[in-house]
Design goal:
Helix 1 crosses helix 2. It is built from three helices and no strands. It is mainly α and 188 residues long. The protein is rod-shaped, with a radius of gyration of 67 Å. Helix content is 95%, strand content 0%. The relative contact order is 0.03.
Amino acid sequence: MKRILVLLLFSVWISGTVAYAQEESRETAEHTEESPLATVFRWGNAIVLFGALIYLLRKPAGEFFENRKKQISSGLQRAKEAQTSANARMDEIEQRLASMSADIAAFRSEADREAAAERDKILAEAKREVDRVVEQSRQEIDRVARSIEREIKDKVADSVVKRAGATLQTQMTEDDQKRVVVRFIKKL
């Protein structure tokens, strides 16, 4: 109710001011000088106008600025919380990265150890295989050598027997043959 009354008075005052301003403008057009009363009235009108505006807008403007202040402070609070959360997450990520590089170094050293163990295992297996092949080769060489030695002995023996047979046939007489047969029978 108070506001309606103030608005009504304000509108009456404004309309009076407008009418006076029109009257003054007519007079000013006729007279180039402005009276001190008109200047005071203008300044008074401006002061009343701004006073009325301040009075009327004080509560809505106060509420607006209070709401805006609350919004800004809640926004600042949310920003602080978000910054704290982001800093915590950043610290966690940095720790994970530091841990990850330690894990990578551990994996790398483990892989190096496994590779060295696998290399040693492969070398040992290859050495065993080489030793087995060498042993098989030796056995094969021994077998072939014995076979060749037997063949040579057989050939030499055959050759000796043939030569001896040939020699005996050519040099042995009938008497010699009889003696050999007699000796053989005596031994039996």
